[in-house]
Every structure is written in C-alpha cells, then in structure tokens.
Design goal:
Length: 480
C-alpha cells in the first residue's frame, strides 16, 4: 500500500515537474522571441545539435539501466560517475578543437567561440547525473521540480536582461549555461553524494548488457531527430532554421509534455499486465484511444488557430513560422502513439525489435532529407510529415501483432474518434476573420472548435468524452 502511494506521489510530482519546466520555458521563450531575431534562435538550434548528441553519448543508456536495477552499490554509482565525467571531457575537447570547422560548415560567424562556451554544459551536467538517477529511482521528483523551477526562472531572467541589452545569441547561450550550473549546484546541495575512489570496467560492461539495445535505439532516434536541424542549418539560412526551431519548440510544448506523462504512466501499467494477454490488450486499447483523441484535439486546435496564435505570441517577424508549425503539429498528433507502442514492445521484453524499428526509421528518413535539400524547406517538412505517419503505422503494426490488435482495427479506431475534429479544423481554416484583430480571431476560433467538439462528442456518444465527463463529475462530487 505504501509502495503504491509512493508511486502515485512520484507520478504526480513527475507530471508537475514536466508542466512547470515546460511552462516556465514557454513563457521565457516568448519574451526572448520578442527581443531576438529568428537568425539568433537559429544559431541556438545549431548549438543544441551538439549538446543533444553529446548528452546521449555521455549518458550511454546508463540511467535506464540503473533505474531498472533493483539494488545498486555505491561502487556502481561511482563507476558510472567517473565514466560519464571522462566521456564529457573527451567530447568537449573534440568539439573544442573542431569548432572552427563547424563555423565554416554552417557559415555562421563567431560559431566557434559560441560552441566552446556553450558545450561546457556537458561537463557541468556530469556533476549531477548520478544524483538525478537516485532521485528518479526513489520517485522523489518533488526536489527536482523545485530546483528546475528556480533555475529556469533565474536563468530566464538573466537571458531576458542580456537580450534587452543587445547581447543577441549570447543571451540564449548564457541563459542555458546558467540554468545547468544552477541545477548542478542545487542538486548537490539538496542531495549531496560523494563518489568512492573506485572504477570498475566490469560494472560498465554489465550495464551495457542491460541497456545496449535501448542505448542504440536512443542513439538512432536522437540522430534521426537532430539530422533535421543539421541539414536545415547547413543548406538553408539561419533565419529558416530559426523559424523551424521555434515552430518545433511550440509544437513540442503540448505534444512532448503529454508524451512525457504518457511514457511515465504507460510503461509500468503495461508491464504489470504483460502476463495476462486479454488484460494487456484491453488496457492498450484504452490508452490507445484516449491518448490519440487528446493529442488530436490539442494539435488540430493549434493548427486551426496557428496564424493568430503565433502573431499574438511572437509578433509579425515570426510569420514564417506559421506554415512550418502547422505541418509539424500533424507529426505531434502521433507522438503519444509512438511512445505507447514503444513502451508496449519494451514491456514485453522485445528490446531488439525496438532497435530494428529505430534502424528502419533512421534509414527511411534520409531520402526525405535529400529531397528536401534539393527542393525547398516546405517540401522537406511535408516529407517529414508523410514519413512520420508511415513510421507510426509500422509501429502500430508490430505492436498490434504482440497483442492481436490488427492494424486495420487500429486505423478504424483512429478515424472513428477524430474524423469530426479534422472536419472542424478544415472548416475553421476556411473562415476569414481578417477584419478582426488577431486576439479576437484567436478567441472566436478557439471557442468554435471547443464548442463543436463537445457537441459532436455528445451527439456521437464518444466513449472518451463520456469517460472524461464521469471523471469530472466524480472530481466535482469529491470536492463539494
């Protein structure tokens, strides 16, 4: 009972942590977007490529392996700490001495010095990696939530002050670097841990045996995601990359937040049902329908109001973000399904299949990027939308085979739940409210979308709508 209560408490604070972090970053990002240009955000997008890939190589899948392991000695923690620290120094100096090459490659003046400063993050983050794993294992997300909130606010304030004083892209660099430094200091203050002076290669080998397929899957997935930014940064202008990164971050706010929460919840739920095929199928279908309906509702609503939303939040200089945001939001619809399918496969112990699917995803994305480079940014993004839908169908097919849930049944369920949402979205995109202010248009379109969704759900007796209605009634009764 105590263990179940601790798990619920951990999931609650994990969810709060996700919302707090994303919310604070969103508000700060809006203010900075008002002060800075798309080109300056494009430079940050280039820098983030190196940080993202470096973090993955330093982490090496050890966090997942350590979290899954029941008992971990201080010697194991110490070994991982020294390994991560050593790899972070090696990667930093490799990037440090090759920074001039990347400045020439991306054709951005001053990029070399920016890389040298920005990539100090990978060394700093190594000093709180072990403690973050400890906090996750104990489901103690409360401390981390407070730390990330405080560090985000302070570093965000610093970034805004620097941007206001015309520091340009450097304001984004110092904001990000100061956030990492604050987290490292606060984590070590609240969860002080001293490593032993010991390093055992056998511990590294044992952890790789546990997490090798998951690690390679993560590497392929991260490379596939970062290839987009790498290609756009090289073959298109920094301004175009700025539009892309801003559109992608706006899309990620709702989709990745929901995706993160679903990932935390679905894996333990599906794992607990893995020995009962009927219950596993029943639970998967419920999660499948609910998550797809919620993600479709949110992302199609955003597509419907995207022009007004972006102009209200970011201003006229970010108009080039609108069409990219609309395309990327279609990809965001399928994020929860991909997370759910991946967790189902992992829950059944088929980690080798996740690696094969990631390999397939990686190599089938390359032709899309090549076609995009040879044509234009819009064709590249459209290609990514098409290939993303195709990848989702592949994942649905293989996960469906595991629980005897055919792809055609899944497609039928998808269409049955969201056809009216698509219809409302199309209708709103034909409504012309150009004679109104962006604020008025935003409010009217949002209201129409929400009201029509409720009406259609009531008329069609949508199961998910009925489920939400029951939970809301229960919540209301319990409060009053």
């Amino acid at each position: 009972m105590a263990e179940s209560k601790s798990a619920r408490h951990g999931i609650l604070w994990g969810t709060i942590d996700t919302f707090v972090r994303q919310g604070v970053q969103f508000v700060i990002g809006i203010v900075l977007a008002r002060l800075l240009s798309p080109e300056e955000f494009g430079i940050l997008g280039i820098l983030t490529i190196f940080l993202s890939l470096s973090d993955l190589l330093i982490e090496s899948g050890f966090s997942q392996a350590l979290i899954r392991k029941n008992k971990i000695s201080n010697e194991e923690y110490s070994t991982v700490f020294y390994f991560n620290l050593g790899v972070s120094f090696i990667l930093y100096f490799l990037i440090f001495f090759s920074s001039d090459f990347f400045e020439v490659y991306f054709r951005v003046e001053g990029l070399a010095m920016m890389l040298k400063v920005f990539m100090l993050k990978i060394i700093i983050s190594s000093f709180y990696f072990t403690q973050s794993v400890m906090l996750t294992k104990s489901l103690d997300f409360k401390i981390f939530t407070k730390i990330t909130f405080f560090s985000s606010v302070i570093s965000g304030g610093l970034g805004i002050i620097l941007a206001y004083n015309n520091y340009g892209a450097w304001s984004l660099i110092w904001q990000s670097l100061s956030a990492t430094l604050l987290i490292a200091i606060l984590v070590n203050f609240f969860r002080f841990w001293k490593p032993n002076f010991i390093f055992r290669w056998i511990e590294i080998n044992n952890l790789y045996k546990v997490s090798s397929y998951l690690l390679f899957t993560s590497i392929l997935g991260r490379f596939a995601n970062e290839m987009n930014t790498f290609i756009i940064g090289r073959y298109f202008s920094p301004e175009t990359l700025g539009f892309y990164t801003r559109a992608n971050s706006l899309k990620n706010l709702p989709s990745q937040t929901f995706n993160t929460i679903l990932s935390k919840v679905s894996l333990p739920i599906l794992s607990n049902k893995q020995d009962d095929p009927d219950e596993l199928q029943k639970m998967y279908k419920k999660l499948f329908s609910t998550s797809f309906f919620i993600s479709s509702f949110v992302m199609l609503l955003l597509i419907s109001i995207s022009d007004d939303l972006i102009l209200v939040l970011l201003g006229e200089k970010w108009r080039g973000t609108i069409i990219l945001f609309q395309y990327l939001s279609i990809i965001g619809i399928f994020y929860p399904l991909n997370a759910l399918n991946n967790n189902l496969i992992i829950a059944r112990g088929k980690t080798r299949l996740t690696f094969k699917l990631a390999l397939f995803k990686f190599f089938t994305t390359i032709p899309v990027l090549i076609i995009g480079v040879l044509t234009n940014i819009n064709n590249l993004i459209i290609g990514l939308v098409i290939i993303s839908i195709f990848h989702t169908l592949i994942y649905c097919y293989f996960s469906g085979r595991i629980i005897n849930y055919k792809l055609i049944e899944q497609l039928t369920e998808m269409f049955r739940n969201i056809w009216f949402l698509i219809l409302i979205c199309i209708m709103l995109n034909f409504i012309n409210l150009s004679n109104m202010s962006n604020w008025s248009s935003l409010i009217i379109k949002s209201s129409i979308f929400i009201i029509l969704t409720i009406l259609f759900s009531m008329i069609l007796k949508n199961e998910i709508f009925i489920l939400f209605k029951k939970y809301l009634i229960k919540f209301y009764i319990s409060r009053f």
